[in-house]
Amino acid sequence: MDDLDPLFARLARSAFRSRFRLNAREEAYLAQRGLDTLLAHASDFIGQRLAPALPLNDGKQTPMRGHPVFVAQHATATCCRSCLSKWHGIAAGQKLSDEEQIYVAMVIQRWLSHRRP
């Protein structure tokens, strides 16, 4: 789980995943609040929306826009349990461990830190 380069190379080859960019409002939100605040938001979103074994509205729990973390989640396939399973090998149907939650946050952090305009 430490080396994210192969994951990001695969994500870059996905036409769907690679099309995500922050819009002007989301960029401004990130600039105003800062990465640390957004990572705290990401941790909360992960704990509430992804960590449960059977998340409410799984597959539809992450909006496509409106917050930089939501955009990052779709860009990195950390938006729902089926994407976590397919892209990250994290099995659905069981609560995310603390280590898995940290991993998801690290993936989001990398995307937000290295995003392209």
Structure description:
By secondary structure, the chain is mainly α. The chain has one domain (5-114). The protein has seven helices and no strands. It has helices at residues 5-12, 15-18, 24-33, 35-50, 68-75, 81-88, 98-114. Helix 5 (68-75) crosses helix 7. The protein is globular, with a radius of gyration of 13 Å. It starts with a helix and ends with a helix. The mean pLDDT is 93.
- SSE run: HHHHHHH
Structural class: mainly alpha
Structure summary, number of beta strands: 0
User: Oligomeric form of this entry?
Assistant: single chain
Number of helices: 7
The helix content, as a percent range, equals 55-70%
Radius of gyration: 13 Å
CA distance, first residue to last residue: 27 Å
Question: Could you say which overall geometry the principal axes of the C-alpha atoms support?
Answer: globular
Largest sheet: none
- Quote the beta fraction: under 5%
Q: Please mark out the parts with pLDDT under 50 across 5 or more consecutive residues, or reply none.
A: none
